[in-house]
Design a protein that fits this description.
Radius of gyration: 25 Å
CATH topology of the largest domain: Rossmann fold
Largest sheet: 7 strands, parallel
Strand order of the largest sheet: 3-4-2-5-6-1-9
CATH superfamily of the largest domain: P-loop containing nucleotide triphosphate hydrolases
CATH class of the largest domain: Alpha Beta
Length: 464
C-alpha cells in the first residue's frame, strides 16, 4: 500500500459520525456572546458534541442554552450532571438568565425540560428515559476504568442528544479525548488509538500521533469537538476576556530538622527527593507551615486554603478564626451546604482540598488563595487557581505557596509542568483553530457521501 493510499484509508475512517441533531435551529437567548451562540448552534446541528473551552468562557450558559433548545424541540427530559455543589451554582446561573431548570435527586423528580443533579447520584437515574444528557466538567470521563466513565458511556449509548463540556483537556492525554469520543458515540477509544496513534518507543504507556495521520486526526477532532482558550481562537474578538494579573508568592518555612526518613542525622538540611521523603518532610514541618499560613490569611476578604493532608486542614481551620473546613468525610449535603455558603459570601475563609472543591466552581468574588500542602499534580494546582483566576475576575489574583525548605524542588517541577502544558495546549488549539472556526460558524458540514452499491429494483406495477 502506498503512503497516499494509506492516507486515503485514514481519511475514509475519519468521517464516521455525521450530524444527527436538529435540522432547524430555534432562536437562542440574546444574552449569549457571539462565540457562545455559534457554539450552541453548532452543537445543536451536531446532536452529539464536545466543548473544550477555557475557564470563564461561558460553558454553563452554553450547556443551558443547548439543553433548553433540545427540550423545547423534542418536548423531552434533559439531564445535566455536574460535580458536587456545582449543581446549585448552575441553578443560580439559570435563574439569573431566565432559563427554566430544576434540581433533582432521583428519577421520579424529573420533568420535561432541564433537570440538574450531581454525578454522585448517577445510580438513581435511568438514562434511557432522557432525550439528552449534558456532562458539566466532563473530565470525569478521564478515568480509564472508573465507575462514572463506564456507566455514562454504556447507558448514554441510546440517548440521542449528548453534550460534554470541560476546560481544555490535558495536553498529550489522548485517552481523555478517546473517552469523550466514545461517550458521544463517535468512535471507541480503542479504535481511535489504533487508527491515529502508536506507542512511544521509550514508554508504552504514552501514545503518540502517527506522523502522517496528524492532519487527519485534528480534522476528525474538529468534526465533533470545539477547542478554545479565548474567543479569538475561533476568530471572535476578545473584548471582556482579558485576565487580570496572577501573582504567585512563595513562602519557604525554616524547619529545625531532626533525623531523616532513615533515622540518620546530617549537618545539612535533608532535601526530599522521593515522594516518600517529601511526605516525611511535610509531616515534620506541619506545625510551622500551618502557623505561617494562618499569619498570611487576610482579616477582611474571602480566602481559600488548599491542603493535602487532613492534619493540615484541621490545623488551619483551628488556627484561623471563622474558617470552615470542607472534609472528605462530610456528607455530600454538608459539603454542598458549606461550598454554597462560601459562594454566597456567608463563609469568609474556606479550608479544603483540590480533590474536593478544585473543579467547577466560579469564585470570582474571591481573589486570594493559598496552598499549604503541595502536590506534584499540576492539574490540581491549575484547576484550584482557576476557581478565581478566570474570565470575569476584575482583581489581581494572589496565590500563596507555603512549603518547608526540606520539601525539595516541588515548585520548580510544577513550573516546568505548567510551561509544558501551556506549550502543548497552544499547539492543540493551533491545530484545530481554523477547522473549528469553520465548523462552528456553519461554513462546513460533515456529510457522508452517497455511494449506492445496489441497483434500484422497481416493482412491476411501477414499470408498467
Amino acid at each position: 500500500m502506498t503512503l497516499q493510499a494509506y492516507q486515503d484509508f485514514l481519511a475514509s475512517k475519519a468521517i464516521v459520525d455525521p450530524p444527527s441533531g436538529l435540522d432547524r435551529i430555534p432562536q437562542l437567548p440574546s444574552f449569549l456572546f457571539p462565540h457562545q451562540g455559534d457554539i450552541v448552534r453548532w452543537g445543536l446541528r451536531r446532536g452529539r458534541a464536545a466543548v473544550f473551552a477555557g475557564t470563564g468562557l461561558g460553558k454553563t450558559l452554553i450547556e443551558l442554552a443547548w439543553g433548553q433548545a433540545v427540550a423545547e424541540a423534542t418536548g423531552g427530559m434533559v439531564l445535566l450532571f455536574a460535580p458536587l455543589a456545582v449543581s446549585a451554582q448552575i441553578l443560580r446561573e439559570a435563574a439569573r438568565f431566565g432559563i427554566p431548570a430544576r434540581l433533582v435527586r432521583s428519577q421520579h423528580e424529573c420533568r420535561a425540560g432541564i433537570n440538574v443533579t450531581n454525578y454522585q447520584k448517577l445510580d438513581r437515574f435511568e438514562l434511557a428515559a432522557f432525550v439528552a444528557v449534558i456532562l458539566d466538567e466532563s473530565s470525569i470521563l478521564k478515568s480509564h476504568d472508573g465507575h462514572y466513565r463506564t456507566r455514562l458511556i454504556r447507558d448514554c449509548a441510546v440517548v440521542p442528544f449528548r453534550l460534554a463540556a470541560t476546560a481544555t483537556p490535558a495536553p498529550n492525554d489522548f485517552t481523555e479525548l478517546g473517552n469523550h469520543a466514545e461517550f458521544l458515540g463517535v468512535l471507541s477509544q480503542t479504535d481511535m488509538l489504533a487508527t491515529y496513534f502508536v506507542h512511544d518507543s521509550s514508554d508504552t504507556r504514552v501514545w503518540k500521533l502517527k506522523g502522517h495521520a496528524e492532519d487527519v486526526f485534528w480534522r476528525w477532532m474538529a468534526s465533533w469537538a470545539v477547542m478554545l482558550r479565548r474567543p479569538s481562537d475561533l476568530g471572535y474578538p476578545d473584548d471582556g476576556y482579558l485576565l487580570p494579573p496572577l501573582t504567585r508568592r512563595e513562602h519557604p518555612v525554616h524547619v529545625e530538622w531532626g533525623p531523616d526518613i532513615e533515622g540518620q542525622f546530617s549537618f545539612l538540611a535533608p532535601i526530599a527527593k522521593t515522594m516518600k521523603e517529601r511526605l516525611h518532610a511535610r509531616r515534620d514541618s506541619l506545625e510551622e507551615r500551618v502557623s505561617k499560613a494562618a499569619s498570611l490569611t487576610p482579616h477582611d476578604e474571602p480566602y481559600v486554603w488548599w491542603c493535602n493532608l487532613n492534619a493540615e486542614s484541621e490545623g488551619l481551620a483551628a488556627a484561623i478564626p471563622g474558617a470552615v473546613e470542607v472534609r472528605g468525610s462530610d456528607t455530600d449535603d454538608e459539603k454542598e451546604r458549606k461550598v454554597v455558603a462560601f459562594s454566597e459570601g456567608r463563609i469568609r475563609v474556606l479550608v479544603t482540598k483540590p480533590t474536593i472543591c478544585g473543579f467547577g466552581m466560579n469564585w470570582q468574588h474571591c481573589s486570594r488563595t493559598g496552598f499549604v500542602g503541595l502536590t506534584d499534580s499540576f492539574e490540581q494546582i491549575y484547576q484550584s487557581i482557576r476557581r478565581f483566576w478566570r474570565f470575569g475576575q476584575t482583581r489581581e489574583v494572589i496565590a500563596d505557596f507555603v512549603f518547608a525548605e526540606t520539601e525539595g524542588a516541588v515548585l520548580a517541577n510544577l513550573a516546568r509542568k505548567e510551561a509544558d502544558a501551556d506549550r502543548m495546549a497552544a499547539a492543540m488549539v493551533r491545530h484545530m483553530a481554523d477547522l473549528s472556526a469553520a465548523e462552528v460558524r456553519g461554513t462546513t458540514r460533515t456529510i457522508l457521501p452517497y455511494n449506492p452499491a445496489q441497483p434500484i429494483m422497481l416493482p412491476s406495477w411501477m414499470v408498467n
